[in-house]
Amino acid sequence: MRVEPYLMFAGRCEEALEFYKQAVDAKPVMVLRFDESPDKNHPMPLPPNWGNKIMHCGFMVGQTLVMATDGGSVDQVVYSGVSLSITADDETQAQRMFAALSGGGSVTMPMSKTFWSPCFGMCTDQFGVNWMIGTDGDFQG
To answer: What's the rounded Cα separation, in Å, for the pair 130 and 132?
Structure first.
């Protein structure tokens, strides 16, 4: 069994995918567009001209599969009460990812030393996705 995040981007999935390729070294593993669906009688109503929008995609961030879609609406999704957490290989990688993810977004907690990590911070990216970025420390929770 696995638990994998599934993100909805309200028509901005392609933009988000390109952003995450740069920000967190995301590696796309598949992209399916609405007009490529084998089911041409798609039950979800779509905005006009959404054939080239992403119906479903998957991308790897490190060893984790993250799935995403444009969804079926242009209504902005609000991610509340959940964050994606990355344990970086080292402080340099953590700082780089944090700077990239928070650029165009907002910083919730600046990168700093904590009792559980020598380098940890929280931010929300330009798509409204909440992130926690850190490195392994001595804390064993």
So the answer is: 7
Nearest to 59 by CA among 100, 97, 23: 23
> 72-75 — which CB contacts under 8 Å span 24+ positions?
72/44, 72/45, 72/46, 72/47, 73/10, 73/11, 73/47, 74/10, 74/11, 74/47, 75/10
Domain boundary among 24, 41, 69: 69
Q: Which residue do the tokens 């967190």 mark?
A: 24
Q: How far apart are CA 128 and CA 125, in angstroms?
A: 5
Q: Report, as an integer, the average pLDDT of 94-120.
A: 96
> Does 74 reside within a domain?
no
Other Cβ atoms within 10 Å of 68 Cβ, number? 26
Q: For 45-74, how does the pLDDT look when each residue is reduced to its tens digit (9 = 90+)?
A: 778 888 899 999 999 999 999 999 998 777
Q: Coil, helix or strand for 122?
A: strand
